[in-house]
Amino acid sequence: MKRVVVVAIVCAGLASCEAVPGAGPLASDINSQAGKSISDVHRSNAAVFEIVDVNAESARTVADFSVGMLKRRFGIGGAARNVVIGVGDQLRVTIFEAGADGLFSTQDSKKTDIDVIVQPDGKAAIPYVGLVQFSGRTLEQARQAVLSALANKAVEPDVIISSGSTSSRNVTVSGAVGKPSMVPLGLSGETIMEVIAKAGGPASQPYESYVTLARGKKTGTVLLQSIVENPSENIYVEPKDQIFVTHDPRTFTALGEVWKNGRIPFGSNDVNLLESIALAGGGSDERIDAKGYFVFRYEEPEIVSDLLSPERFHELVAKGMRPNKEGRYPIVYRFDMSVADSLIVGQTFPIKNRDVIYASRHPAVDIAKFVRMVSAPLAAARTGQIMMNQ
């Protein structure tokens, strides 16, 4: 009898030391590592992350940011109030004279058209005037500059300056569009959708196309479908912006105690957390830990800061939390399916491309597995002892 008790104690001790093989960590393992620094985990290559519970507030924060990321990061923008001439712009300078025999007029015509290109120093040459500063000036300001220079040289001159190609106001559109190209901006301002349309439009469906906007040192990536459905995201572009359209069928990966492990396509415009669990076949009633559903994601820094507070975010960065190559930080969302309102909250939490959804097993599964592992050799030994006694 004592031997049985000792064996039971050993089994319990080994089970607590994770002696039982498993397909992934228990919920307790994930919870215990959250928020710890690299030195606390005692692994030099460990990832520092934090856990955020999926509740009504956090789900709303993630959903709201997902549909307003470009506006939030770049602002709505708008048509430039004072469009100025830039280096490389092609201009047509038309000079009129009242007399029939002036510098720029003849018996047949009282005007002369002069095509110029603004040079790297911002200037261009006009006959009988010399170098004129064009870069940084509006068309009207440039007109007044040329007109002033002609005051004592031409007969009652007048000037009209019109814009040809505007290299300084181009936007680069590349990737999965009909015609990747440099798109010139008009004087009234143009939105992302208008510029993409000028480049031939997207080559794939909006719910499988991503738009990345790069402006200076800022970048932002959103689903094209989000821009279509949320007009506030259709922000105005600015000269020198770079727009890249990517065709990337959206998928998420389901692991753990769900019936269908693997990469699963969205198959629709969007998928919420409950739908993703359903697409994976749901959890196994006999093995699942209903309190241990997790979504592993690299999240936008603004979302991380809003969810954790700026102070906690900076603290984790100091502990060793590092972004990926897109500048996003690791966050783990924890979802408790044992509470009633989870069926409401789960509908508002959006799943994103490349998310990993992990359903942890219940601790009782490991205990039962360990009991089977130990009972098998004990049963064999008892059978052998019986046979020897015979």
From TrEMBL:
Gene3D superfamilies attached to this UniProt entry: Outer membrane lipoprotein wza domain like, wza like domain
Alphabetized InterPro entries for the sequence: Poly_export (IPR049712), Poly_export_N (IPR003715), Soluble_ligand-bd (IPR019554)
GO molecular function list: polysaccharide transmembrane transporter activity
Signal peptide: 1-19
Domain Soluble ligand binding residues, every copy: 171-221
Keywords: Signal
Pfam families cross-referenced by the UniProt entry: Poly_export, SLBB
Keyword Signal assigned: yes
Transmembrane segments: none
Domain annotation Polysaccharide export protein N-terminal: ranges: 80-161
Keyword Signal: yes
Superkingdom, natural source: Bacteria
Protein name, UniProt field: Uncharacterized protein
